[in-house]
UniProtKB/TrEMBL annotation:
Keyword Transmembrane helix listed: yes
Top-level taxon: Bacteria
Principal localisation: membrane
Membrane topology: Multi-pass membrane protein
Pfam families: LysE
UniProt protein name: LysE family translocator
Location in or out of the cell: Cell membrane
Amino acid sequence: MDFHLLLLFSVAFTSAVAVPGPNVAFAVAQALKHGLRTTLPGALGFGLATAVHATVVLSGVGLLIHDNRWILTYLRWIGAIYLAWLALSAFFSKSGPSDAKAENSSPRQMFVDSFLVSLTNPKGWLASLLTYPSFISPHFSYSTQAIALSVTAMVISLSIYGGYMFLAHKARAAFDNKTALNRITGVIYAVVALCLVLLPY
């Protein structure tokens, strides 16, 4: 493995993940609504989605996606519809006894939601298609490099999204009004859905 390339990949991938986008907004919204303990498994969902991106791209299947951009369009709309549903659920949820239920949302659901949002985010796929092949050296074992890049990307994803969730959890303490929190997270979900539909990738 060319460690110089691995280091450059780490810098490039960290920059790509850390820049706020649909995944970051979703992670922040989840942490605001449900708290860190419940939401943290969502970071694992983002990490697993990163592994799927890497596996697809590095196995050569990514060429199929590259040549058939309509696949990304379908993913974009699936993700937007799902996020719109989450936005409506959050925005119109009533304060009171239901808040306790919201606070006790399943960590498994947080994991699944984050995984699905990341997989249906065309920006993630395009970034993966452009990034991974650029850091493969012809002078070393392809499989070794593929594993090293994938593991590095997973660790970076877990760290970045976990960090955003932690910061959002700290900001959450400033809100005493659960209804206001629901409205804020609903708006964030809606903005992410619009970004998936309207922004070019």
